[in-house]
Amino acid sequence: MTISSKPVLISEDKKRVDGRKPDEMRPVRIAVGVLKNANGSALVEYGDTKVLAAVYGPREALPKYMTSPTRATLRVRYHMTSFSTSERKSPAPSRREIELSKVIREALEAIVFSSLFPRTGIDVFIEVLQADGGTRTAGLTAASLALADAGIPLKDLAIGVAVGKVNGVLVLDINELEDEYGEADMPVGIAPNLGEIVLFQLNGVLTREEVKIGLDMAFKAAESIYKTAKEALYNKYIKLVEEVKSQ
Ligand code: ADP
User: Fold this and answer.
1) Is the pLDDT reported for residue 231 higher than 90?
2) Distance between CA atoms of 100 and 117, rounded to whole angstroms?
3) pLDDT value at position 237?
4) Which atom of ligand 1 is the closest one to the Cα of 179?
5) Which of 51, 179, 188 to mutate for ligand 1's pocket (most ligand atoms within 8 Å of CB)?
6) Residue with CA at minimum distance from ligand 1 atom 10
């Protein structure tokens, strides 16, 4: 008889590998306007996962036939830097990165008032600086904040957070180890004020009830991340106003 080698990811007192409770987020750190040359930028950290987003535009987009006469065209590139993973990642775009660029673009299209900028392009670059699970979710949060920082009118922010299932327990904001050895990973993008889900994926198996509970966990976490995000935007602009006043 073989003995299962499934790792223990939840201790007897319901603590996770990094000491968190099941519904506990990793420390969230957010800074906006971190790059001088981009129109908007944001650095978002969920624990050890660190993602930078930069926005250029709305600006003239080429080739012209790719633009829309009625709205701005969003172009999104999600990319993992070679030094973001424990083993050097090839800098060439992988299938995974191409797919993630698409789903993040679709999530952002739900929050941008793109009809205000016909015939233009908005470029969003998402660079994963350090990966420890949840790079698409932290990337989505960073991208929406970079759009806000660029002054692009938004219906809401899009906040990303993943819910997973490890050792039969639903857990918030899974890290790489939990993602690798857990039973399910459900990344969600939430526009908290619109009350909308703008990204929803599920790898693994969850019951209908677990999906419901998981979504409630994600909404609650998104509201809390939203507060931190708003503070980061406020801090930057309050500083700017103070600088202008002191001149
Ligand atoms: P997400 O980062 O959105 O959770 P995945 O579920 O695909 O996306 O990946 C989970 C984690 O696995 C990543 O955050 C990263 O830590 C790790 N990972 C993903 N792709 C690679 C890769 N090509 N090389 C090494 N580690 C990777």
Assistant:
1) yes
2) 25
3) 82
4) 10
5) 179
6) 133
Give me ligand 1 centre to Cα 179, in Å: 8
pLDDT tens track for 161-177: 999 999 999 999 999 99
Please state which CATH class domain 15-246 belongs to.
alpha beta
**Cα of 247 from ligand 1 centre, angstroms:** 47
| Nearest CA, atom 23, ligand 1 | 89
* DSSP codes of every residue in 144-192: HHHHHHTT--BSS--EEEEEEEETTEEEES--HHHHHHSSEEEEEEEET
Can you give the pLDDT at residue 66?
A: 81
Task: Tell me what the pLDDT averaged over the chain comes to.
Answer: 95
The amino acid that residue 143 corresponds to is A
| CB-defined site of ligand 1, < 6 Å | 85, 87, 89, 96, 131-137, 176, 179, 185, 187
- Can you give the pLDDT at residue 4? 56
φ and ψ at residue 236, rounded to 5 degrees: -65, -45
* Residue boundaries of the structural domains of the chain: 15-246
pTM for the complete prediction? 0.95
